[in-house]
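Researcher: Batch entry, complex prediction.
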Amino acid sequence: MSDKKPMLSCRNVSIRYKVGDFKNIGLKEWVTRRLTGKYRVVDFWADKDVSFEIFEGDMLGIIGTNGAGKSTLLKAVSGIMEPTKGRIVRNGRVSALLELASGFDGDLTVKENAYLRGAMLGYTRRFMDETYPYIIDFSELKDFENRPFKQLSSGMKSRLAFSIASLVKPEILILDEVLSVGDGAFKAKSEAKMREIISGGAATILVTHSIAQVRAMCSKVLWLDSGLQVAFTDDVAGVCDCYEEYLKNRPAGPVYDPVAAKARIDARAAAKARREAEARQMREDAAKLRKVREILKRNGLRPV
Amino acid sequence: MISKLKKHQFLFEELVKRDFKKKYKRTILGMGWSMLSPLLMLLVMKVVFEQFFGRTVNHYTTYLFCGLLTFQWFSESTNSGMRCLFANASIFTKVNVPKYLFLFSVNIQVLLNFALTLLVFFVFCAIDHVSFTWRFLCLVYPITTLLLFNLGIGMVLSALFIFFRDIDYLWTVALQLIMYGSAIFYTVDRLPPKVQLVFSLNPVYRHVAYIREIVLSGAIPSLGTHLTLLGFAVAAFLAGSYMYKHYNTKFLYYV
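Model: Structure tokens for the complex:
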């Protein structure tokens, strides 16, 4: 793995969101608050020190509760936001589908929306002309082709969105809550399609609340909580077990609850202990090696 | 920027198409409105002001039309430009696309409206017995600079509009001021020099004056005028580009 170039690598990415008084307040409020010194803008770290990398054919599942910083991270990966700290290196064309059904225009027809979306994802007209029949076929919306988009059901909207994103050949595909759409039959079809894309060499990032999906499809998993990286590993089953247990023990309520904090701290402490153990092991190994060399020297032999 | 534009050509075309469809949806006359509305405005102004200024100005209808044509283009372009970024927030918060595409796409449509009005304008010139000369070709120059100027102002306004929705109201007032300051239905010759200086600082008035000089006097304005128009356009465009570049990734905090 290590000799291959990662398709996407995030190193120590931190993203700061601004929250506070600047939004929707209008000029008058802005001026008065500035003058009275009541203007407050609070920095809010949506992601703190997140690092991961994915290679060709990888499917990374990002899990975490609401407000964990998943969508913000995806925005940074797709280039909509700049990471405040850290670096994101992309070695391929990113095709991002965030919050699927939105971003379509209700007044345009299904066909027009498909072309517009295709254009937004960076495809050419010729490509769309060729691919459009497949898209409409895959999404099973042939009968609705010339209907205004707003007349579609939400499941249909998502089906269209998924079909457009997946029937093209992206190098890095980002899917935010995509596979949870559609009825059972479509779900099976879309999962099969996803496997096909992944086996075709694309690197995929999937954000979902469905742990079963992560278990079934992902080769790597990234667990975020309140912006912190709890785990990034290819031990998908292990992390999913932990996460499910964590969800079970977590009382319903605000995102920043003590249980979450404790779990986070525990997880980080465990990671730290692991790192320390590794370092100790390395030191011990080095000491052993030194001892062996000394013995060799004492016996007049050259160390090998 | 050119290569980027090429890369996004398909998206740009689709955006233009969408803007057209959305604009003329459910209107019976469709594009006819864009020709009809300046004409109605022209009719109103002619009826109201001809008594006052019609006697001293030759070809008063054409004189009026020059001003209206220019001002309405500016007004429509900046007004729709102002909203374009906010209206497309659902797109640029989800897909990484160059944000000026939205503004350019809206302006294509506005430009086409202007072109249609310009055709009508030429018909009116002919009716008004204005003599056409080769100098009419020079009209390309103020049209180009005003287009750039409109784009620049559109960028500035659309960026500000994301931060403060009040810009809408302020701009309505500002447009009124610019309209009265552009000498659309009156002449400035009899005003004191100091006041005339103020007029010469109004980019829209300068464009109107340029077009009038070509159409009504059949003369080409001075080199200084050309440079001033270019200066306005470049300044506005640079200011707009700077705002777009500087706030590129910050807009989404505000929508």
